[in-house]
Amino acid sequence: MKREIVAFTSTIPVEVVFASGRAPLDLNNLFISSTKKNFFIAQAEAAGLPRNLCSWIKGIYAAALKSNVKKVIGVLEGD
Predict the structure, then answer these.
(1) Residue 61: left if φ>0, alpha if ψ -120 to 50, beta else—which one?
(2) 36 phi and psi angles, rounded to 5 deg
(3) How far apart are alpha carbons 59 and 17 in whole angstroms?
(4) C-alpha dist (Å) from residue 27 to 1, 30
(5) pLDDT band at residue 76 using 50, 70 and 90 as cut-offs
(6) CA distance 26 to 75
């Protein structure tokens, strides 16, 4: 049985995702390990994100679109 994927935008206790019976996907790693980082950024800008917005945010946005996940845990604030 294939588990539902839950993506996340920052470090979280990944055990929570596993405990829910789902599979985790780190959008940061998907973006930064891609050979098409510039394409991801351009894709986000084409979708309307401003040029002066942080490239990392735009990359994570495009990575989420590429991954086609239905659920994302968005971390809004750090420690």
Answers:
(1) alpha
(2) -115, 40
(3) 23
(4) 23, 5
(5) confident
(6) 12
